[in-house]
Predict the structure.
Amino acid sequence: CTCQSARPLPVVSAVPFRQVTYNRTLPMILECHRIIFQGIASIIVARPASVLTTTLLVSLVVSMGNIYIRFKDNFRAGYSEPNAPSLAEHLAYRSFYDFTSSPYMIGLVGECEEGDSMLRVDVFKLMRKDIDLGLSTIIPNDDPTDQRHTLRDYCIFSSEAHFSAIEESINYHSENIHIEYPNSTVFAQRLSMRRIMYGVKNGSLKILFYTMMFQPESPDILAKIKSAELAWYQRLEKQESSLLRLHLFGDELVDNEILVGSVSTIPYLVVGGVLMLTVAFCALTRYNQSFISTIGLLLWTAMCPMLAGIMAIAIFSFRGVAVNCMMFITPFLVLGVGVDDAFLMIHNWFHSTEVDGSSRLSTMLVEVGPSVTLTSFTNVVAFLASCFH
C-alpha cells in the first residue's frame, strides 16, 4: 500500500463572503433611502402650503400638553440603580414592620458653636423648642370642615425617648438617668446614643440628631407632609441664633435643591443659545442673501429643533410625567443637533447645481436625509442607553 502525506483542507476565507454581502446590502439601503426621501420631496413640492400648515398645526396642538407641565425631581427614584441594594433593604424593612408603603424620614441636626456643648441647658432648650414647633406644623387640607392635622399626627417613630432622657437628665439630674456615649442608662435600661450624639469630646457634645419617621396614608398625604417639611426648612433658613445652628434633612429638600440648581442654569443655557444663533447668523451671511431672508432662515433653523423638544416635553407632561432637571435641558441639546443638521441642508441647497426647485429639493433630501436620520437615531439611542443598563 502506498502511503500518501496528509494535505491540509483548503480554508475558505470569510472576507470575500462578507464583502459580497456588504456590496449587495449597501446599494439596497441607499436605494431605499432614495425612494423614501424622493417621496417626501415630491409631497412637499406638490403641496408646500398644506405641508407647512399641517406641520405647524400638529406642533401647536401637541405643544398644548405643556399646560399640564410640572417640575419635580425624585433623587431616589430618578437617580438610583434599578438593582440598588437600598431598594431591597427598603422592601425588607417594609415587610418586617408590615408597612404597605415606604415610610418617609426627616432629620433635624443641631450643631452648637465651637467650645460650647449641645448638653448645655440653653442650647438644648432651643433645639427642643424648634422640634416641637416643627412637628406642630399644620398639614394643609383642601376640606375646611375636616379635622386639622399636624406633622406630629403622622409621626410613627422618632428620637423622642432619647431627647426626653437627655432633657430629664439636664433639668433634674436624676440618679436613675445617666447620659453617656455610646450607651446611656435610663432606669437600668440601656439606651443607645450612637445615632443621636456626634462629636463627643471631653464631656462636651458638638451635634445632636433628631430622627422623625412618618407613615402617610396616601400619596396625597405624603405630598402635604413634604410641603410642611419645605415650610419648616424655609423657616429655619430665616432663623438666626448665636448659640445654635439647625439643619433639616429630607428627600423633599434634596429634590428642591436639585430643581433650584437646574433653574439657576437657565441664564447660561440662554446665553449659549444666543451665541450659537449669532454664529449661525454670521455663517448664513456668506450665502449673500438679503437680511430678511437670512433672519427668516435663521428663525426656521432654530424653530424646528425647538418645536421638537417642546413637543416631547408636552407629551410627557400630558401623560402625567414630571419634568426633572435632566429632561429640562434636552430641548437645548436638541437645538444644537438640529442646527448642525440645518447647516448640512443649507450648504447642500446653496451649492446645488439643480435649477428646478423640485429636483433641487429632491437631491438635497436624498443626499442629506440619511445623515440627518442617522444623527437623530444615534441621539435617541444615546438618550435611551440608561434604559437598557
